[in-house]
Write a structure and sequence with these properties.
By secondary structure, this protein is α/β, with parallel strands linked by helices. The chain is built from eight helices and 14 strands. The strands form four sheets. A five-stranded parallel β-sheet has the order 2-1-3-6-7, sandwiched between helices. A four-stranded antiparallel β-sheet has the order 8-9-10-11, covered by helices on one side. A three-stranded antiparallel β-sheet has the order 12-14-13. A hairpin with a 2-residue loop joins strand 10 and strand 11. The chain binds calcium ion (CA).
C-alpha cells in the first residue's frame, strides 16, 4: 500500500458494519483507520489527518452530530454520515452542521464508493483549482457565466431564480443539498424554513429540463432531506 491511497477514518461502533466496510474499502484501494467511539474518532482525526470520514451517528459515548460540529471547526475532510433507517431528522441536522453526504443502512459497496469519490472530488476542487465555468451532466449543459442551459440540442429558458437553483445543484453535482442549505443560499437565511419555495421552483425547473418531469432522471429528490443533481456518468 502506498501513501497515495486516500486515508479514510471510519467511526462505527458495530463490529459487523466495520468488517463490511473494511472489506469494501480495502478492495477499492482505500487505507483505513477505525474508531468505535466519538472520543477515539477525535483523537484519530487529529493524529492521522484523514482524507475522508465515514461517521455513524449513534455512538456509545456521544452523538455523531456533535462530533460533526466539532470536527468542522478545524477539519476540512469530507464527512459522510452513516445513519439508521428512519433517522431522517438526524441526517438532515448532520448535513446542516457540515456533513457532506449520507448513506442509509443497509447500503451496497458500489453506492458507498461512488459517494466517497464524489465527496473527495468536491473537496479537491474546493481546495485548489477554480470552479469550472461550464458543466455537462448527461444531457444537461450549464454555462455558469453566460447563464445558458441546454438539454441535448434544446435551449432551456430559465428565470433567474430557477437558474440559481440549477447552478447551485450543478456546482454540487452528486452531492445532496438540504432544503435549508438551498433556501439559505438562494433566498437568504431568513427563508431557511420556507421549504415550499424550493418545491415550487423545483417543480418548474423539472418541467423545463426533465424529459419526464414526474419521473426525474437528473434532479433527484432525497426524501425528507433535500435534492441532488445526478452526478456525471
Ligand atoms: Ca451505532
Amino acid at each position: 500500500m502506498s501513501d497515495e491511497e486516500p486515508l479514510v477514518l471510519l467511526v462505527e461502533d458495530e463490529v459487523q458494519m466495520r468488517r463490511f466496510l473494511r472489506a469494501a474499502l480495502g478492495s477499492h484501494g482505500f487505507r483505513l483507520v477505525e474508531a468505535a467511539t466519538a472520543r477515539e474518532a477525535m483523537q484519530l482525526a487529529t493524529s492521522h489527518n484523514p482524507s475522508l470520514i465515514l461517521l455513524d451517528l449513534g455512538l456509545p459515548d456521544g452523538d455523531g452530530i456533535d462530533l460533526t460540529r466539532e470536527l468542522r471547526e478545524w477539519c476540512k475532510a469530507p464527512i459522510i454520515v452513516i445513519s439508521a433507517r428512519g433517522a431522517e431528522q438526524d441526517k438532515v441536522t448532520a448535513l446542516d452542521v457540515g456533513a457532506d453526504d449520507y448513506l442509509t443502512k443497509p447500503f451496497g459497496t458500489n453506492e458507498l464508493i461512488a459517494r466517497m469519490r464524489v465527496s473527495l472530488r468536491h473537496a479537491a476542487q474546493a481546495g485548489g483549482t477554480a470552479a469550472p465555468s461550464t458543466l455537462q451532466v448527461g444531457e444537461l449543459f450549464v454555462d455558469f457565466a453566460r447563464h445558458e442551459v441546454r438539454v441535448g440540442d434544446r435551449d432551456v429558458k430559465l428565470t433567474p431564480t430557477e437558474f440559481r437553483l440549477l447552478a447551485l445543484l450543478a456546482r454540487n453535482a452528486g452531492k445532496v443539498l438540504t432544503h435549508r442549505q438551498i433556501l439559505t443560499e438562494i433566498w437568504g437565511p431568513a427563508y431557511a424554513s420556507q421549504s415550499h419555495y424550493v418545491r415550487v421552483h423545483m417543480a418548474e425547473l423539472r418541467r423545463k429540463v426533465e424529459r419526464e418531469p414526474a419521473r426525474p432522471q437528473m434532479l433527484l429528490t432525497e426524501a425528507g432531506v433535500g435534492y441532488r443533481l445526478r452526478d456525471r456518468g
